[in-house]
Amino acid sequence: MNKIIQAYETVNAKLSTIEKKPSIHDPTGVNSANPAPLPGQSTLSDGSVLYMDAKIPATSYYSAIPHFLEDKLRNLPKFREHDDLSILQFLSGLYDLHMIAEKYFIQILERVATTQNIKLLQRLLADTPNQQELTFQQVAKQVLNTLTSIKTRMSFQLEFLFRPQKNGETFREYVEDLTKYSIILQAHSPSEVIEIILTGVNDQTRSKFQFQTTPTTLKELDNLIEHVEKLEKHADTSKSREDLSDLSNFAKAHFSQPKNYSYRPQGNHMAYRPVSPNPPRQNLSPQPWQPRSGYHPPRRAPNNNYTWNNQNRQNQSSNSPVPKPQRQSSFRANNPNWTTKFKKETVNFAQPQYPMAPPPWSYYNYAMYPFPCPPPPTAQEQKTQKKTRRKTANQIKQTKKN
Fold first, then answer.
1. Can you tell me the distance from the alpha carbon of 371 to that of 374, in angstroms, rounded to the nearest whole number?
2. Does residue 303 sit within a domain?
3. Which domain holds residue 142?
4. Nearest one of 72, 182, 196 to 137, comparing CA atoms
5. Are 9 and 24 part of one and the same domain?
6. According to the model, what pLDDT value does residue 13 have?
7. Overall domain count for the chain
8. What is the reported pLDDT for 28?
9. In terms of domains, do 110 and 170 share one?
10. Basic residues composition bias: which ranges (predicted)?
11. Which of 240, 177, 236, 164 is nearest to 206 (CA)?
12. For the whole model, what pTM was predicted?
């Protein structure tokens, strides 16, 4: 420490030689170059204050709260007076802060009430003569009794306190969660809370309970939690293992093959792969593989021999599954429809049929209305139209002659 003080003396001496200000008579020492030291500060040889020894009084909650709680305070749920669920979530986050740093609960409460502008907490802090005696239970009870109804508190008990243990939730997590909400809601005694916990555990946790008398205190419940955690930790090691005393039985159980399966060579494993999605294990038999009837090419589709050598190319026409048509000697015989004329038929494009039928699909079953176009004329109507056109043309010719 003496070396650090000497270093600060040399730095202050250099600064005083670089820049010298005219001295002003100031008995208070406020406007002078060397101000009067505050209580708890020490002065150097030239009369300057050693700011390293200056102590800021811890009157603000910002300086009193530890720094490791800053993230927790920033992530604290927002307090909304008109939202019952947000009030419970806020008290849950405040409970976590209270359990982490109970010593700084009053400073935390002051900061939260100021940053979130919670009038109820500000009024509660102002009306409490001795703030050090203010506990989390008093704050939670005052907030819930003021802002929520008894029906809301009962619904909170049914949803958060009387719930069963979730899948994948450990016994300790389940107990801590129910204990937290029992402290927040303050509706049951510790013995009743223990009974609620033992009633809501799942069958997997209940199978690890070993006690002659039901736990009635929190200490007995904590001993039960430790016992369940030990059994959960060693659950994998306590499983029954396989009997390895006779290795022949182990080999039969793990390496035996079914009777209807024969070993195939590794070179042809794609051609002889099993149909089952779960193929049997590899056969470790020392017997070499011998084909039944000599080598044959890989399996193909039935009656469909692909071309892979010249011999098969010659026999491909005879073994083809598609029969070839019998070819005739003349062109007319092979093409009997060459001279047949196309039949002239009337093609009605975009002409609806009357009466119109609904489409075959089921979801379009409402009535269909005909298109605004006339149906195709019949043969009799076509004859009548031709006669009318001829008559009209003759009348026009007569009028032109006259």
1. 8
2. no
3. 61-148
4. 182
5. yes
6. 52
7. 3
8. 45
9. no
10. 385-402
11. 164
12. 0.45
